[in-house]
């Protein structure tokens, strides 16, 4: 059950001018289940995207990168769930290309203007015929139906919307994402799509997407496994009357980037809140590191530790596990006597050992909560980072043991 995750209703999820959303049933995931999504973009737009760094990256990821490199513009995104089209060799690439060709014929564009995305089981052939047969039958829907159609082991659809008013002009943002297991940077199996009617120059949008991903989708971990299919895409349709944003010096740049980052973080945290078998949402807040990279390194070590995560599941203040993870994080010159560790507001460790005023009862009270923050003060500098994770439960094992059953 997702941890304190509220699903927006239809009225709260905003339509974006220049974007049409379609959903259909291809029978890839299971019969009579929405598992095919087609998003059609009207007119000229800008695209920014970042993808998994897994060397076994899926065929659709490879094709999407190739199509983006043609610089011919993007007119459609096509997404299937139930099959990742990963570990499928040359046939997988040909299948992804074929689906792009069929979408292009259907909407009237070039195949290179279609970006394919897949999510689901790895190392199984993509049932192309089912997808191609379903494409002409897709129906116009609103974002909640699309968010549900891209789910795999997710228990709830993930959506976020924002409106910001700048100089009397409203700019809208809507994003959907999927992910529940196989979640770990880089990137955190997840797919994330955000759409805005802002007018943003492509080079700047690409830079924004990479920076925003760093504090959102690349700051989450459920199980320490980096997927073959991870993709985060932002589309700017340019339909707002607000002027074009083409540099960091543009007066509206900071506002637009802040809202985009807020939407991405909400979606990323929703993935952790809906982590497979999760019962707790945990923030690892690392402060006073020498560099942000160092802070993230320590945060990840704690966040992905099975021993730490199972302790949280059991509400067991076995907090030596956190110290252990900090110690093996790989910071060679770490002065453990200077570190302070807090569980919520409770000081747990300082001066290389247990805090003198710490009590098991105080730790137990925090561990019993369903949202917990672990603060680690390294006392080395001014950099900081937050990593978001969840506990590791028996249900996680059951979900993944039965995934293909």
Automatic annotation (TrEMBL):
Protein name (record): Arginine biosynthesis bifunctional protein ArgJ
Source taxon at top rank: Bacteria
Gene Ontology CC terms: cytoplasm
Residue numbers annotated as active site: 189 (nucleophile)
EC number: 2.3.1.35, 2.3.1.1
One Pfam family named in its UniProt record: ArgJ
Gene3D superfamilies: arginine biosynthesis bifunctional protein suprefamily, ArgJ beta chain, C-terminal domain, L-amino peptidase D-ALA esterase/amidase
Site (Cleavage): 188-189
UniProt keyword Transferase present: yes
BP terms from Gene Ontology: L-arginine biosynthetic process; ornithine biosynthetic process
Pathway named in the protein's UniProt entry: Amino-acid biosynthesis; L-arginine biosynthesis; N(2)-acetyl-L-ornithine from L-glutamate: step 1/4; Amino-acid biosynthesis; L-arginine biosynthesis; L-ornithine and N-acetyl-L-glutamate from L-glutamate and N(2)-acetyl-L-ornithine (cyclic): step 1/1
HAMAP family given in the database record: ArgJ (MF_01106)
A molecular function (GO) term: L-glutamate N-acetyltransferase activity, acting on acetyl-L-ornithine as donor
Tagged with keyword Amino-acid biosynthesis: yes
Keywords: Acyltransferase, Amino-acid biosynthesis, Arginine biosynthesis, Autocatalytic cleavage, Cytoplasm, Multifunctional enzyme, Transferase
Positions marked as site (Involved in the stabilization of negative charge on the oxyanion by the formation of the oxyanion hole): 119-120
PANTHER family to which the protein is assigned, alphabetical: ARGININE BIOSYNTHESIS BIFUNCTIONAL PROTEIN ARGJ, ARGININE BIOSYNTHESIS BIFUNCTIONAL PROTEIN ARGJ, MITOCHONDRIAL
Catalytic reaction annotation: L-glutamate + acetyl-CoA = N-acetyl-L-glutamate + CoA + H(+); N(2)-acetyl-L-ornithine + L-glutamate = N-acetyl-L-glutamate + L-ornithine
Subunit structure: Heterotetramer of two alpha and two beta chains.
Function: Catalyzes two activities which are involved in the cyclic version of arginine biosynthesis: the synthesis of N-acetylglutamate from glutamate and acetyl-CoA as the acetyl donor, and of ornithine by transacetylation between N(2)-acetylornithine and glutamate.
């Amino acid at each position: 059950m997702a941890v304190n995750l509220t699903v927006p209703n239809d009225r709260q999820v905003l339509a974006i001018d220049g974007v049409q959303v379609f959903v259909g049933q291809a029978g890839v995931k299971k019969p009579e289940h929405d598992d095919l999504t087609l998003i059609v973009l009207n007119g000229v737009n800008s695209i920014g995207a970042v993808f998994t760094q897994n060397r076994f990256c899926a065929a659709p990821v490879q094709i999407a990168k190739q199509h983006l490199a043609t610089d011919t513009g993007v007119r459609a995104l096509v997404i299937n769930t139930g099959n990742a089209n990963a570990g499928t060799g040359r046939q997988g690439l040909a299948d992804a290309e074929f689906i792009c060709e069929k979408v292009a014929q259907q909407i009237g564009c070039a195949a290179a203007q279609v970006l394919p995305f897949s999510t689901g089981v790895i190392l199984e052939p993509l049932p192309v015929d089912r997808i191609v047969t379903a494409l002409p039958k897709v129906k116009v829907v609103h974002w909640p139906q699309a968010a549900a159609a891209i789910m795999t082991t997710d228990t709830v659809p993930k959506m976020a919307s924002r409106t910001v008013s700048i100089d009397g002009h409203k700019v809208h943002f809507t994003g959907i994402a999927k992910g529940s297991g196989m979640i770990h940077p880089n990137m955190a199996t997840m797919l994330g799509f955000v759409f805005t009617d802002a007018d943003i120059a492509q080079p700047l949008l690409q830079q924004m997407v990479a920076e925003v991903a760093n504090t959102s989708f690349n700051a989450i971990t459920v199980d320490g496994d980096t997927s073959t299919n991870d993709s985060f895409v932002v589309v700017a349709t340019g339909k707002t009357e607000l002027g074009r944003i083409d540099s960091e010096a543009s007066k509206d740049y900071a506002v637009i980037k802040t809202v985009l980052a807020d939407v991405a973080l909400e979606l990323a945290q929703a993935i952790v809140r809906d982590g497979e078998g999760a019962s707790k949402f945990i923030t690892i807040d690392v402060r006073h590191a020498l560099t942000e990279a160092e802070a993230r390194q320590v945060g990840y070590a704690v966040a992905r530790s099975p021993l730490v995560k199972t302790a949280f599941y059991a509400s067991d203040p076995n907090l030596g596990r956190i110290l252990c993870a900090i110690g093996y994080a790989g910071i060679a010159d770490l002065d453990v006597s200077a570190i302070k560790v807090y569980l919520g507001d409770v000081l747990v460790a300082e001066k290389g050992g247990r805090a003198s005023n710490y009590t098991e009862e105080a730790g137990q009270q925090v561990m019993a909560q369903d949202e917990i923050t672990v603060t680690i003060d390294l006392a080395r500098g001014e950099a900081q980072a937050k990593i978001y994770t969840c506990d590791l439960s028996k249900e996680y094992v059951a979900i993944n043991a039965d995934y293909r059953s």
